[in-house]
Amino acid sequence: MQKVFSTNVVSEAVLVRDALLRHGIEATIQNENSGFTAVPEFRPPAEIWVMRDADYAAACRLVEDSLSTLDRKTEGPPWHCGNCDTENPSSFELCWNCGRVRSESGTT
Known about the structure:
Elements: E1 2-7, H1 10-22, E2 27-30, E3 46-50, H2 56-75, E4 79-80, E5 87-88
Antiparallel strand pairs: 1-3, 2-3, 4-5
Helix pairs in contact: 1-2
């Protein structure tokens, strides 16, 4: 078992772990509930660990790809839902207001 990623943002750790799982790499999050501690200064980072050492190199590449995709998606302009005209951050695939999928909502 080897650690491939560490972050103080638990949701980011979940996204990275899920990307690994989708590619058939068994992974787990250590300290997943650290975001619920009362004192932020004492929160341990969430860590992604791959279960099989043989998956380590591929997992590192997938972590890098996942993070660059997240960065790219957060840098774009906001989009407007064609269903309810609500402005959504570029990283959202669903409208936060009505739940429509971005491609189905006639975005602008």
